[in-house]
């Protein structure tokens, strides 16, 4: 069973789905709609922020 989270992009406010396995703290997601890079700050409750320009999150 594939679990997915519905999240809202902090940039374009678009709604998209993320596989649960990718939805962990400090993971960087890419918005399906605008391509923004989004950092998962917290998963419960869900807290997201945009990746700062020049920020290296490897
Ligand atoms: Zn977006």
Explain what you see.
By secondary structure, this protein is an all-beta fold. It has one domain (4-50): Rubrerythrin, domain 2, CATH 2.20.28. It has strands at 4-8, 15-19, 28-30, 37-43, 46-50. A 3-stranded antiparallel beta sheet has the order 3-4-5, with no helix packed on it. A two-stranded antiparallel ribbon has the order 1-2. A hairpin with a 6-residue loop joins β1 and β2. It starts with a strand and ends in an 8-residue tail after the last strand. 9% of the residues are buried. The mean pLDDT is 91. The site of zinc ion has 8 residues, from loops. Zinc ion (ZN) is lined by residues 9, 11-12, 14, 31, 33-34, 36.
Helix content: under 10%
As for the number of domains, it is 1
End-to-end span in angstroms? 29 Å
Bound molecules: zinc ion
CATH topology: Rubrerythrin, domain 2
Stretches with pLDDT under 50, minimum 5 residues: none
Give me the secondary-structure category: mainly beta
Q: Compute the gyration radius: what is it?
A: 11 Å
- Number of extended strands: 5
The main sheet comes to: 3 strands, antiparallel
- In the CATH hierarchy, what is the architecture at level 2? Single Sheet
Strand content: 35-45%
Q: Tell me the number of helical segments per DSSP (H or I, 4 or more residues long).
A: 0
- What is the mean predicted local confidence, pLDDT? 91
CATH class value:
Mainly Beta
Q: Give me the strand/helix succession.
A: EEEEE
Strand order of the largest sheet: 3-4-5
């Amino acid at each position: 069973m594939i679990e997915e989270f519905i999240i809202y992009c902090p940039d374009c406010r678009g709604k998209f789905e993320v596989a649960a396995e990718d939805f962990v703290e400090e993971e960087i997601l890419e918005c399906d709609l605008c391509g923004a890079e989004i950092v998962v700050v917290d998963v419960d409750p869900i807290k997201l922020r945009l990746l700062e320009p020049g920020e290296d999150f490897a």
